Amino acid sequence: MKLSRRISWFLLAFGVWSWVIWVTFVKNLIKDSSGLAFDDGHPTAYFWVHLTLAVVSFVLGTVVGGIGLRGLRALRRTS
Question: Which phi-psi region, left, alpha or beta, contains residue 3 (left: φ > 0; alpha: ψ -120 to 50)?
Fold first, then answer.
């Protein structure tokens, strides 16, 4: 299967976007002072759920971005 240049760039951009957004979210989650993420210095269920979401999003963003990158490399080899 061959991906178009447009789709490949979209997938790569999605992967990068996912990393930017979720890294920012995790930084904010760790610095949380509202009491949602930490209770007396101990992580809450809110923290663990959102950290799990972030890790899954990192993995999916990496996979999707990797597919886009491979698509762009394949297009460059055939041009």
Answer: beta
Query: Hunting for tokens 């990158």 — which residue is that?
Result: 69
pTM for the predicted model, two decimal places? 0.85
Residues of the chain falling short of pLDDT 50: none
Return d(Cα 70, Cα 60) in angstroms, integer: 15
Rounded Cα distance between 74 and 79, Å, is 9
Dihedral sign (CA 21, 22, 28, 29): positive
**Dihedral of alpha carbons 37, 43, 46, 52, sign:** positive
The whole-angstrom separation of Cα 31 and Cα 3 is: 40
